[in-house]
Design a protein that fits this description.
Layout (H helix, E strand, L loop, with lengths): L10 E4 L7 H5 L5 E6 L3 H5 L1 H8 L4 E5 L8 H13 L4 E6 L1 H13 L6 H5 L11 E5 L11 E6 L4 E6 L7 E4 L9 H19 L7 H23 L4 H14 L13 H13 L3 H16 L4 H12 L8 H19 L15 H6 L13 H10 L2
Parallel strand pairs: 1-8, 2-3, 2-4, 4-5, 5-8
Antiparallel strand pairs: 6-7
Helix pairs in contact: 4-5, 7-8, 7-9, 7-11, 8-9, 8-12, 10-11, 11-13, 11-15, 12-13
This protein binds 5,6-dihydroxy-NADP and zinc ion.
Length: about 375
């Protein structure tokens, strides 16, 4: 275990109709509010009107059209608006993309240079405009962490950055707001939160037994309640459990004392930087193949995963066979719920691999650091 400090200041406000708490939560910050949202789902679902009613007391400015895989240019536009309109508080309403974009708006609004400088670490934020979130898609845990992933179309890069200054002040988690998710977005959320747990399960420390037990439990619950959300999108209990699982999966508490591997996220971010596919689709294609690639060097951990998460039968099998069966079961589960499992399903082919490999900006992999050649092999296995 490495030494660690942990402080997560985000207040979670969970349950039906909790947007009625917006007024009391935002009022201490001031009157000027920037409302940030995506491509229009909140207008279709009626949430936009309900939010505006709750914000009646405030001067509300808006930034609409945050893209899935949010662009640095959109965040820059938001940061300029915050400065121009003297915004006191930002409210993000949406999924991970809207929240991640809001985090960069929050930090870039207190910086005179280019927002991209913050993403690449050229500027370390010293101040940020406070913000809160109303979550509409359970997936990333961006609602309770200090990370953000931003795309730069010019440099063809999609990079994560973070700062303790960009934890949301509060996040409203109302499971009913996820009832309207299209099936594929519910699937994406399930894949993403499971992959976050896997990234941390396969980690660089010798003993993570305590965390492993928690992670195995959360993964099993996701595999029980995720399909229930797909069968009945208005199943409140199932949506609640999935919403909590998504937040727990990446709010930092499952990786006390270590980082986790995170190579699959690095591999995926390079794919979606070049092809603009959904993050979780890329993960479903790449992660099981990353597992198959590294498993021979970490057989004991993959065997534990197979037995404790997928109840793999062990008699008359080698450790490698047990380990591989666990990986196959994960891949099958994702396939069964409808996730794409091959890059070719999104028209990504062998000749695209060098471009994708070029987009990998940083060293990836902590349990097993990967070279660019390793990455190319894993993409080939994922075709
Ligand atoms: O844009 P609108 O019209 O709002 O539609 C969105 C979007 O098209 C739609 N949607 C969201 N809530 C809805 C809804 N449609 C109907 N009803 C609702 N209730 O869903 C689509 C996808 O939304 P998006 O926010 O892009 O999805 P997600 O939450 O999966 O976020 C993905 C982004 O987060 C990054 C990913 O790389 C990707 O850019 N990640 C952020 C992380 C973090 N901050 O910690 C970690 C993750 O690993 C991930 O990398
Ligand atoms: Zn993810």
């Amino acid at each position: 275990m490495q030494n660690f400090m942990y402080k997560n200041p985000t207040k979670i406000i969970f349950g039906k109709n909790q947007i009625t708490k917006l007024f009391e939560q935002i009022k201490p910050y001031g009157k000027n509010v920037l409302l940030v949202y995506g491509g229009g789902s909140i207008k279709k679902t009626g949430l936009y009107c309900s939010i505006l009613e709750e914000l009646e007391y405030f001067n509300v400015y808006e930034l609409e059209g945050v893209e899935p895989n949010p662009r640095v240019t959109t965040a820059q536009k938001g940061a300029n608006l915050v400065k121009e309109k003297n915004i006191d508080f930002i409210l993000a309403v949406g999924g991970g993309s809207v929240i991640d974009c809001t985090k960069l708006i929050s930090a870039a609004s207190k910086y005179d240079g280019d927002a991209w400088d913050i993403v690449i670490g050229k500027h370390v934020p010293k101040e940020a405009t406070p913000f809160g979130t109303v979550l509409t898609l359970s997936a990333t845990a961006s609602e309770m962490n200090a990370g953000s992933v931003i795309t730069n179309l010019e440099t063809k890069q999609k990079l994560g950055w973070g700062s303790p200054l960009v934890y949301p002040q509060f996040s409203i988690l109302d499971p009913t707001l996820t009832f309207t998710l299209p099936r594929n977005q519910t699937v994406n959320g399930i894949v993403d939160m499971m992959s976050h747990i896997c990234e941390q399960y396969f980690n660089e420390v010798e003993n993570s037994d305590l965390h492993d037990a928690m992670m195995e439990g959360v993964l099993k619950q996701i595999m029980i309640y995720g399909p229930k959300c797909l069968e009945n999108p208005k199943d409140y209990e199932a949506r609640s459990i999935i919403m909590m699982a998504g937040t727990i999966a990446l709010n930092g508490q499952l990786r006390w004392g270590f980082n986790g591997d995170w190579a699959s996220h690095g591999l995926e971010h390079a794919v979606s930087a070049v092809f603009d596919i959904a993050h979780a689709e890329g993960l479903a294609m790449v992660m099981p193949n990353w597992m198959k690639f590294v498993m021979p060097n970490h057989v004991a951990k993959f065997k534990k995963f197979a037995i404790n998460v997928f109840d793999v039968e062990t008699s008359n099998k080698t450790d490698e066979e047990i380990a591989l069966e666990g990986i196959n079961k994960l891949q099958q589960f994702w396939q069964q719920i409808g996730a794409p499992t091959k890059l070719s399903e999104r028209n990504i082919n062998k000749e695209d691999i060098p471009t994708i490999v070029n987009s990998i900006a940083r060293q990836i992999g902590n349990m097993q650091p990967l070279t660019k050649e390793d990455a190319a092999k894993i993409y080939e296995m994922s075709l």
